[in-house]
């Protein structure tokens, strides 16, 4: 039981490049989330998916797109990376009636 | 105004000390409250939920004051292993919008 996995762990991009961050969970959770964590800002919700086939914007969605490919997988895409998107990205999932979120290990992204 | 505000610290305390963190939230419609723990360069993990009546888990006690819109976490008999950042988290009645504080850094000193 791996919980929530994220790939890659580290990535360096040049401004304007695109990439997709992958997230998968094996806990059969309905809800999945993407957050970014910046110094002094705490974790901020980018997008979430309450169930397979649905996605909704969070607090800071601009510059990102998401896909809930199936119940297990929720990917985050940066179409044209900007230095302001340098951050640590966490994926999380939540299941049933519990409010507990389980986080993946994070992706450290640097955009130069 | 931020949804959730915490004193970032750092709090440096000796082993065995008692330390308390507070967190305030701005939206009175907030329904659920939590404390998460985040170790350096790791993911956050749930420490405990916070219930209206207050709740305790071993050396940790969480309290909620809805009238004043703050949440507290008390750690008794601090251990070196308690050194981490403690995140206050609030959920509004929409169910999937969670708001995180910036975290309070705790270092327990031998």
State the major sheet of chain B: 6 strands, mixed
Helix content of chain B: under 10%
Integer-rounded radius of gyration of chain A? 13 Å
How much helical structure, as a percent, in the residues of chain A?
under 10%
| Strand-pairing-aware structural class of chain A | mainly beta
Oligomerization: heterodimer
**Proportion in β-strands of chain B:** over 45%
Could you tell me the number of beta strands of chain B?
A: 11
Average pLDDT, all residues of chain A: 95
Uncertain stretches of 5 or more adjacent residues of chain A: none
Q: Alpha-carbon distance between the termini of chain B? A: 38 Å
Strand content of chain A: over 45%
Count of extended strands of chain A: 11
| H and E string of chain B | EEEEEEEEEEE
- Could you say which overall geometry of chain B the principal axes of the C-alpha atoms support? globular
Q: Please report the two chains with the greatest interface, counting residues with C-beta closer than 8 angstroms to the partner's C-beta.
A: A-B, 22 and 21 residues
Instruction: Please give the count of helices of chain B.
Output: 0
The residue ranges of chain B in which pLDDT falls below 50 over 5 or more consecutive positions are none
Q: Alpha-carbon distance between the termini of chain A?
A: 36 Å
The sequence of SSEs of chain A as H and E is EEEEEEEEEEE
Description:
- The complex is a heterodimer of chains A (112) and B (110).
- Chain A is mainly beta.
- Chain A has strands at residues 4-7, 10-13, 19-25, 31-38, 42-49, 56-57, 64-68, 74-78, 87-94, 102-103, 107-111.
- Chain A has no helices and eleven strands.
- In chain A, the strands form two sheets. In chain A, strands 2, 4, 5, 6, 9, 10 and 11 form a seven-stranded mixed β-sheet that branches. A four-stranded antiparallel β-sheet of chain A has the order 1-3-8-7, with no helix packed on it.
- In chain A, a hairpin with a 3-residue loop joins strand 4 (31-38) and strand 5 (42-49).
- The radius of gyration of chain A is 13 Å and the shape is globular.
- Chain B has 110 residues and is mainly beta.
- In chain B, the strands form two sheets. In chain B, strands 2, 4, 5, 9, 10 and 11 form a six-stranded mixed β-sheet that branches. Chain B has a five-stranded antiparallel β-sheet with strand order 1-3-8-7-6, with no helix packed on it.
- In chain B, strand 6 and strand 7 (60-65) form a beta hairpin.
- Chain A binds chain B through residues 31, 33, 35, 40-45, 48, 50, 56, 58-59, 90, 99-101, 103-106, and chain B through 4, 8, 32, 34, 42-46, 49, 87, 91, 95-103.
């Amino acid at each position: 039981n791996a919980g929530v996995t994220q790939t890659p762990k580290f990535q360096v991009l040049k401004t304007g490049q695109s990439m997709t961050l992958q997230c998968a969970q094996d806990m059969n959770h309905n809800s999945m989330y993407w957050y970014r964590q910046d110094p002094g800002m705490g974790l901020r919700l980018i997008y979430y998916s309450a169930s397979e086939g649905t996605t909704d914007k969070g607090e800071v969605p601009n510059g990102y797109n998401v896909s809930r490919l199936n119940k297990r997988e929720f990917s985050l895409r940066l179409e044209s990376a900007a230095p302001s998107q340098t951050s640590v990205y966490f994926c999380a999932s939540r299941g049933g009636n519990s409010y507990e979120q389980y986080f993946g290990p994070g992706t450290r992204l640097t955009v130069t | 105004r931020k949804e959730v505000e915490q004193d970032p610290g750092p709090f440096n305390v000796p082993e065995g000390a008692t330390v308390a963190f507070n967190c305030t939230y701005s939206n009175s419609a907030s329904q659920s409250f939590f404390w998460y723990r985040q170790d350096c360069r790791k993911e956050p993990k749930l420490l405990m939920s916070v219930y209206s009546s207050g709740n305790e888990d071993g050396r940790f006690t969480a309290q909620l004051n809805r009238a004043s819109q703050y949440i507290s976490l008390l750690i008794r008999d601090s251990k070196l292993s308690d050194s981490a950042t403690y995140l206050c988290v609030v959920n509004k009645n929409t169910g999937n919008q969670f708001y995180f504080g910036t975290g309070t850094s705790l270092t327990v000193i031998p």
